[in-house]
Amino acid sequence: MSDSEKPSRRRWISLGEFSALAALVISALGVWITWQSSQKDAPTRVVEQREAIPLTLRGRVRDDGRAMEISPVEDTHALQALTLSIPTSGSVIEIGSDGTLSSRAIESALNSVGDRDGKTHRIRVRIDARYVEAGADKRASGSYSLSYRWEGGGLFAGRSLRLAGLSKA
């Protein structure tokens, strides 16, 4: 039999071949859609953004009340400068980045304000702070209550002020 005499035979696509072809078309369509959507979207941010933590200060009394170290409660805050204002006397005390407040500075600011009776007194102060958080310079201010008492006295010695504590007002 020659080629022209062979019976013509149609080849039908079997069900397995049809499902494989359909899977190939659907897969190619999915790749194309994914590629198109990635072209117009912004890159996905993987790292979480930390929220800012408000500055809160604490005071630690040192040298038997002769000094107080004012520092942030949160370790991620680094002080640059503190300014303490006493509204009743109109005094402003500049404190450096070490946060050390001396009792003499408060004593001179309160020279005409308050009783010198040896009891613990509180005075409202305003603290303005410049600090660094996560590499960014920030500013904060707040009202605090400064505790102090007058000690000493006697025949030849004068009374001196001793710092007792600092709390959020």
| Count of alpha/pi helices | 2
Overall mean pLDDT stands at 82
Q: Would you tell me the structural class of the helices and strands?
A: alpha+beta
In terms of DSSP E residues, the strand content is 35-45%
Strand order of the largest sheet: 4-3-6-7-8
Assign a percent range to the helix content: 10-25%
Key phrases:
2 helices; 169 residues; single chain; alpha+beta
Q: What do you see in this structure?
A:
- By secondary structure, this protein is α+β, with helices and mostly antiparallel strands.
- The chain has a domain at 58-168.
- Helices cover 20% and strands 42% of the residues.
- The chain contains 2 helices and 8 strands, in the order αβββββαβββ.
- The protein has helices spanning 15-40, 103-109; strands at residues 57-62, 67-72, 77-86, 91-95, 100-102, 120-133, 136-152, 159-168.
- The strands form 2 sheets. A 5-stranded antiparallel β-sheet has the order 4-3-6-7-8. A 3-stranded antiparallel β-sheet has the order 1-2-5.
- A hairpin with a 4-residue loop joins strand 3 and strand 4 (91-95).
- The longest helix is centred in the N-terminal third of the chain and has 26 residues, at 15-40.
